[in-house]
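Record type: monomer structure entry
Structure origin: computed from sequence
Chain ID: A
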Amino acid sequence: MIELQFSNRNRLAALLLFPFLVAPLTRAQQPAAPISPPSTARVYIYQGRFRAARANPIWCDGIEVAQLRQRWSYFLLQLPSGEHSFRGRHTENELILDLASGQDYYLRLDQVMEWPGGEKLVRERAEDGRALVGSGKLHPVAPNDILDRSRAMDHSPVSDRR
């Protein structure tokens, strides 16, 4: 029989390393964390039949996030739940929405003929907006028309949430 001699230094090293060697084994036995619901709301903003002579800047919470240049173009914002403001070029036509996590919202840019004129965002019914996005009629804005990539994107993430 072979006798192993452990010095105090070796014993201390073994005691200190033991938790790191055993930890991966205990983690593997724990059940996976449940999938949490989405923590953001999605806001589709699109330009339908209306076509201005110049690009239409879109603002969210006082920051220009994108520009709509062509008919039937859209972009998507992912925002935390809570109150957010949306507008086009004119501050008088601001729209304020209280967004709920996991929900989709649809805003259409319309031409306004009365004073102050210009354009304004109008909220669509969810089923109408969802049908339009799913119809293939809308196309994403050009990537260089997205000005705030932290919140806006030129495509829809893969998801089937309603």
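Annotation 1: Strands lie at 40-47, 56-60, 63-68, 73-80, 82-87, 95-99, 104-111, 119-123, 139-140, 152-153.
Annotation 2: The CA atoms of residues 50 and 110 lie 6 Å apart.
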